[in-house]
Amino acid sequence: MTRLGANRLASVPKDVQTPGYDRANCGVGIVHLGLGAFHRAHQALCTDIAMAAGGGDWKIIGVSMRNEQIAADLNDQDGLYTLIVKGSGAPKAQIIGSIARALCARTQADKVLEALSDPAVRIVTTTVTEKGYGIDRATGGVDPSLPIIARDLAGEGAPEGVIGLLVAALAERRARGIAPFTVLCCDNLPDNGAFVRGGLIDFAKRRDAALGRWIAANVACPSSMVDRITPAQTPATRDLARALTGAEDVLAIETEPFSQWVIEDHFPTGRPQWEAAGVIFAADVAPFEKMKLRLLNGSHSLIAYMGALLGKKYVRDVMDDPKLEALVGRHLEAACATLPSMPNMDLAQYRADLIERFRNPNIAHQTCQIAADGSEKMPQRIFAPALDALRADQPLRPFAFATALWIWFCRDDDSQSCQLNDPRAQHLKKAARQATPHMIFAEFEKIAGMLPKELASSCVWRAEVLSVLTELTHRPAQQVIQAESEKF
Ligand code: CS2
């Protein structure tokens, strides 16, 4: 079987869409950090559509932060890969051509810096996961206790972390009189533009105060909300790509039909015509971010911990159980009540669509994948809406329930179907394994930057979390979850 590559494009079946622009005539304009499945199903597709609609030099240099193999594989395929959309009908494949070439930051930091310093590059997009920035959310600056931040701050050799690389490239551009690039964070974090901006300025100031001031005055960091459920690749994905395109593609990925990208329109050095891909440009992204983080991601985390504790491998397996689905519905309702009014959004429809998306029988999204990095996800997905609910005297129970399940999952019991995978794993495990629910709660409360103080000190919140934890110490999780679904 021939490998996917530029020379295969002419011979893929007619129903497989190929890039609608002359790749050779479009130059590079974007560097993307974080070459995972999500980028390939989302930003790279939108840029592919934008170039087909309006041309422009917006091809992407894709940078994998740690994975050398993915970069090599992408280069072997001339930057091309197959995106398979799986809705209710037959799966549909498309070949994406917006990635010009790929690099790995861990092994080719100099080349990444060179690309980032190129005047042609006007935008840097990032999908490196919540923990990938090394930013301390309590201070808003970088966390120097993290090895990658400490290493890059020390300035020994080329930087390897996201913030270190970006600051080094911005310093180089400033020294050479080149306008800075716009940094567009595409991770599931609230106010993600301000978040990454805070990290860049703080890192820069620690090395050179004038550079910090220059970044503060000149670098645009628009916020964005991104959404598309994209599971990790499996061997079945590659088999399907082969069957649909007739080519071997080690980078093929599958995704759902739904896709959303809302961006604050602040690109001083230009941007692709992403509108052509349905991107919404909004003056304020915050309401969209809140909606997505609290409804989709919040209920995703609930599904993940129910699934992990009950041995249900995929999101769709959780949704197949009417009792669990009812708990997801309850969570969505409570989370919805915490949102600001959104006159142009039909939230009832959004919620109904979410249930359908989670149910998609053709998407094999592992609960274990979503359960990972809970300490990085719970604050914006569960604790922030819980605090708003507390202040507005709205139901806290759904958030307390999700929190207690997460805490129980952090015990990392051998019987669990998936193991704890979290940058604070040791700390969380120790806290979750305390002898009594009160001791567990007290230990979690102490974890810096995790629970908002006002929430942690609320008796109502405490009572709700403790009641679920107490039940979990007496009965199997299955019985506790089932009993919870019968409570309303
Ligand atoms: C998921 C997200 O892994 C997770 O934590 O909740 O990756 C989710 O699938 C995306 O945000 C959907 O847009």
UniProtKB/TrEMBL annotation:
Q: Where is the Mannitol dehydrogenase C-terminal domain?
A: 284-435
Record domain Mannitol dehydrogenase N-terminal: where: 29-275
The record's annotation in InterPro entries points to: 6-PGluconate_DH-like_C_sf (IPR008927), 6PGD_dom2 (IPR013328), Mannitol_DH (IPR000669), Mannitol_DH/Oxidoreductase (IPR050988), Mannitol_DH_C (IPR013118), Mannitol_DH_N (IPR013131), NAD(P)-bd_dom_sf (IPR036291)
Q: Which SUPFAM superfamilies match?
A: 6-phosphogluconate dehydrogenase C-terminal domain-like (SSF48179), NAD(P)-binding Rossmann-fold domains (SSF51735)
UniProt keyword terms in alphabetical order: Oxidoreductase
**GO MF annotations in UniProt:** oxidoreductase activity, acting on the CH-OH group of donors, NAD or NADP as acceptor
- Annotated PANTHER family: MANNITOL DEHYDROGENASE 2-RELATED (PTHR43362:SF1), MANNITOL DEHYDROGENASE DSF1-RELATED (PTHR43362)
Output this protein's name: Fructuronate reductase
Q: Please give the organism.
A: Pseudorhodobacter antarcticus
